[in-house]
Specification:
single chain; 119 residues; mainly beta; seven-stranded mixed sheet; four-stranded antiparallel sheet; 11 strands; 0% helix; globular
Amino acid sequence: QVAVVESGGGLVQPGGSLRLSCVPEGSFFSIYAMGWYRQAPGKQRELVAKITSGGSTNYADGVKGRFTVSRDNAKNTVYLQMNSLKPEDTAVYYCNLGLGTPEGAFDAWGQGTLVTVSS
């Protein structure tokens, strides 16, 4: 059984920064896809950023130049560095990992971490 654990959310003022972390727990042998999504109140979940196993990244238009997704392969950890935060970035942020497990490929989601941008 595999779980995804996120951390790093919280309350920050506009213009501030936060770093989210995501790490899988349980039995797996590879991470082949990594992404961060968010869902604001009353809105659908949307992609924020993705990073491939080869290190290629892509971002939603609204976060380009402000957010950076990265990975530490040695720690099996994925990060989302968020700078110049805006009130419209307020949302629950979810980590999504594509994992290779003994039972096969597994699409795993974290429980979500709340980011609130407010003065």
